[in-house]
Amino acid sequence: MSTRSVVPFGPQHPVLPEPIHLDLVLEDELVVEAIPSIGFIHRGLEKLVEKKDFGEFVYVAERICGICSFMHGMGYCEAVERTMKIEIPNRAKYLRTIWSEMSRIHSHLLWLGLLADAFGFESLFMESWRMREKILDMFEYSTGGRVIFSVNKIGGQRKDMSNDMIMDFVGILDGMEKEIKALSNTFLLDYAVKSRLDGVGILTKQQAHDLGAVGPFMRASGIHLDTRNLGYGAYSELSFEPITSDVGDSYARTDVRIREIYQSIDLIRQAAQKIPDGEFAVPVKGFPSGEYMMRVEQPRGEAIYYVKANGTKNLDRMRVRTPTFANIPGLVETLKGCQLADVPILILTIDPCISCTER
Amino acid sequence: MRHMSMINFTKTALKNFFSKPATRPYPAVPRLYPERTRGSIGIDIDACIFCGICSKKCPTGTITVSRDTKTWQIRPFGCIQCGECVSVCPKKCLTMQQNYTIPNAKKTEVSFTQAQKPTEPLSAEKNPETKV
User: Fold this and answer.
1) What domains are defined for chain A?
2) Residue ranges of chain A whose CB lies within 8 Å of a chain B CB
3) What number of CA atoms fall less than 13 Å from residue A320's CA on the CB side?
4) Neighbouring C-beta atoms of residue A62, cutoff 10 Å
5) B chain contacts of residue A169, beta-carbon cutoff 8 Å
6) What is the pLDDT of residues A172-203, one digit of tens each?
7) Structure ipTM
8) What domain range is B98 assigned to?
């Protein structure tokens, strides 16, 4: 038996934009165990809910993460709206859906770029981010911000998109679909890329289920589950199927995410056809009371927003369970038995968002 | 067996080689902001009635309004550009401007007083009074 050694990985590592630390127990070059630790960038955002007005807290909720900022704001709003029994207008539901799907496209393109960067394919990384830039421009055009959008509020949206604007976006996305097709050919068919992804870090369906994995990480292992099917926003009126793969390796996760980009484009197209005219916000009276647990499908997986209100302007408790937090046990499982050189790729394949996780 | 190939990126690489860059030569070609860009808050101080609603609604508490001295103050580096003040202003004298706050080593405060001659909207060089 060879000697075991422990190699610290992170919190500062070239492949990680955000700090997560892993103690990798190695036997020669093989990882036999990984012990994760987080907590380097805790900001105490949940505690702020006791000081901020429940309406103002939307801006704090948005700042939990810079990539899925729209969905964090939306998830919080949906949870509070349900405690207050507010039915938001249909147009607001569609607007939320369109912006959510745009977030998903931009998050997945960002992830594809980071993946390409992790295995050293710099031009593929640039190409992915060039496309992502178009989505950011669309966000700036419609909401006024590229990262923080400030369009969510309790009771609807703060800004509307005209039907012409939505159709323009659909036109841009149609053009992007062809470019993404060319991009995905490199990710899915290229020999060099495949040699880094194929068969690396397999998570079986049973493991994914037992360890409570979420999102594309779980769906790549063959579990047919998508929180959007719960029908929040306008998803109940749009037709889509969760995208799954049966293999469960890094290649399958890339494949699932690429197909989810096409799915998101299709959902925006459907929403643009069906979006009703009318109001996009309702006035809100009174304060929330009671509690609610809202589940939202973020690009990285299912996020849970728990709010507990006491009938005053400040909530008692707000808790976010982010997808990365749920995926860390699965990540530790996939790391067992892999080569040390594959560790960065495997950490990336769960699409980690540590700022979300630590809040 | 999944299909494999080795020269998938060549077409894209060649296309990029002969096409215009996706980036802009920044200072030479300025950034054009869309109409909705949330850059910084500007005020038409002559129209202001100093009701203080903007100050009450501001989630970061960055606006200070004084009715006695007819002064409206903002700490631009504390502003999160949510646009709440602009939407609640009864006289519509607050505007969301496209230009961002110019970076500064100090967290400055900008104040506007009504008695003064008409002031330009908030921008770095034209602040009537900038104190640290």
Assistant:
1) 42-326 (1.10.645.10)
2) 52-53, 56, 59, 123-124, 127, 130, 133, 140-145, 148, 150, 158-159, 182-183, 185-186, 188-192, 194, 198
3) 32
4) 27
5) none
6) 999 998 889 888 888 888 888 888 888 888 88
7) 0.76
8) 33-131
